[in-house]
Amino acid sequence: MPAPIRLRELIRTIRTARTQAEEREMIQKECAAIRSSFREEDNTYRCRNVAKLLYMHMLGYPAHFGQLECLKLIASQKFTDKRIGYLGAMLLLDERQDVHLLMTNCIKNDLNHSTQYVQGLALCTLGCMGSSEMCRDLAGEVEKLLKTSNSYLRKKAALCAVHVIRKVPELMEMFLPATKNLLSEKNHGVLHTSVVLLTEMCERSPDMLAHFRKNEKLVPQLVRILKNLIMSGYSPEHDVSGISDPFLQVRILRLLRILGRSDDDSSEAMNDILAQVATNTETSKNVGNAILYETVLTIMDIKSESGLRVLAINILGRFLLNNDKNIRYVALTSLLKTVQTDHNAVQRHRSTIVDCLKDLDVSIKRRAMELSFALVNGNNIRGMMKELLYFLDSCDPEFKADCASGVFLAAEKYAPSKRWHIDTIMRVLTTAGSYVRDDSVPNLIQLITNSVEMHAYTVQRLYKALLDDISQQPLVQVASWCIGEYGDLLVSGQCEEEEPIQVTEDEVLDVLEGLLVSNLSTPVTRGYSLTAIMKLSTRFTSVNRIKKVVSIYGSSIDVELQQRAVEYNALFKKYDHMRPALLERMPIMEKSASNGPTEIVQTNGETEPSVEPKHPPPVTQPANQANDLLDLLGGNDVVPVIQTTMPTKPASAGGELLDLLGDLSLSGGPAPAPAPSVPTSQPPFLLDGLSSQPLFNDIAAAAIPPMTAYNKNGLKIDFTFERANPNPNIAVITIHASNSTEADMTDFVFQAAVPKTFQLQLLSPSSNVVPALNQGTVTQVIRVLNPQKQQLRMRIKLTYTLKGSPVQDLAEVNNFPPQSWQ
């Protein structure tokens, strides 16, 4: 068989290929020849063939069939064969393949070889791809070589020990004795690998970290080495751009950072050397900047002196003036991490940071924006907001959402006056209204509502903004809400903050009607506009025009808009006497308020006092069906229903509760007095009286007859009653839902609402499927607190799916047995 071509000739041949197909053909041809040579056990050219195979592997072609040949080369006595064999093993084998275990004995023999270069090959291979089993078997040989006097072997053994510790951390103590003399070595290669080994041990074991701090006195040794590096003269062997061995300096600084973290003594011992490094390192070359950056990170991470921290921040400030984008980015990122702890020191570089907002690099601009917001405080709010609003005007679209959100938060926290706050947020809405987050609209509405003295000024500014631009939907939504609330102030011209404008009622209605028909308006915006027009029916005299507009949208193709219009038409017709009260101006809204002393939040059936929930501002989320009508009701006649339902059917709190109440008569007789506050002797929560015992153990059965609350379309709802003990004001009602039809009723949800003088709680149902043919029932427990002993009235809402069709029905239950509420 002719001799195979050399590796150099193969490379030259492959490079002549003009197409990928031609190259692939050459590779396949050569692989076939190599396979034939392997099958014939050709020892003469095995090394050459494996070398060519490794080159093909580097090009991305499969070379797994050469794995066993690598093992044969490793077992060879020739150094050239071993070198290619170990190289092939590192490239073609890993610990996921069992083949690698076959070379354990060969590596062990080579670790004890008389030639240092063979030992070095074995150490490199073990440190590269040794599995945990191999590391356990060979750790002893590595530890012996770590103690040898040969610098060539010691540096390779130290790196191999790092790999062993990563694979088998419990072997760490084996290498502890060998580390005592490593830092006394003068060879920089041994020093470098020793620092890497010590860093790995300190990071992985708190016990080792404490040992090196106290017993080994590692910090003084590292300080001595670092000082020698700084003070040493020119050394051509280690010099990089005029700095002596920067790689070793960086490694030592990282180890010092670990040793000094949360340790006063270690931090104090390294303060002086860190100051020397920070002041003596040349910054004209990137090598010096790398050392300074590591120095800054170390100073910030240890318990350093305040002056040293200021020096570190000043170094980062100088980085911001560097022409290299990477250095500027690193400086901004580091300042962002330290701004909370050293705010005043970072403030000194505020102008440089703000200048970075004009950088062409998007990553630098983003970091500069985040850092600028972190620097905002009550003293610089006006200047910083001016710069950030200018940035918001000119920045790319991907920055606008984050920048607008940051301006909102900063303005809310540090606003010098309410007018400035409103002007700033309106500036954001007019500049980047389409990019603001969803919560910005309700937050601004709440701000405007609470700024009573600014109502006339705000509605006038928003009306002008509407005339100029209706493309910014959040701005249009806020403006519509404000015009609906304060339209009378707009028309009367009561603005004292600036010159009032002359506007007629028809002009205001024209603008709002234009929003309803505009192609730029989203369905949410149209809902705001229609609600605003409805509110103006109690503020303007053009009631007939408003009736016509509302009636038109009763047949809108948009279901949300249609529902609003139908409900508003009902207010005009059936409940016109209630309209002025329902549409009166919203009161000042608190950021956090509870529904009363009896609100309960339930999680998995467990009762806990609720943290004060945050009420959404009125008419700020039109997507929640009929939420606006709940706002009109003002909460006077609606009791909060805390319901724990099946997770597959989340209830829409606003719309469903309103539908449930509908035309429920709340005034059957003289109007009841408002419910008195709960005295301190009474449990402040509905279930507190039961909290010391199991949930149902203390329910005393009373002679209360059951009743049928609903029986229609095959669905029957029965109520059974019990009286809670020890609190007789709580009635426990258990519903039993049965189904007489031939098909199961799925997605069954039972809801209930009671007048304000009661408090009601729904527990989770036993199931959301009512079995057919009365083969089972669904039960659910209702608790009703009736402190005034008034006649119980309830409206229930039932929703379920029968034979694939959704069914929904309402019913009023007024015939409760007297024993249930007396």
Automatic annotation (TrEMBL):
It is found in: Cytoplasmic vesicle membrane; Endomembrane system; Golgi apparatus. Residues 702-817 form the GAE domain. Coiled coil: none annotated. Keywords: Cytoplasmic vesicle, Golgi apparatus, Membrane, Protein transport, Transport. One of its GO terms (biological process) is vesicle-mediated transport. PROSITE patterns: GAE. The keyword Aminoacyl-tRNA synthetase does not apply. GO terms for cellular component: AP-1 adaptor complex. It is a peripheral membrane protein. Its main location: membrane. PANTHER family: ADAPTIN, ALPHA/GAMMA/EPSILON (PTHR22780). Belongs to the adaptor complexes large subunit family. This is AP-1 complex subunit gamma. It comes from Sparus aurata. The gene is AP1G1.
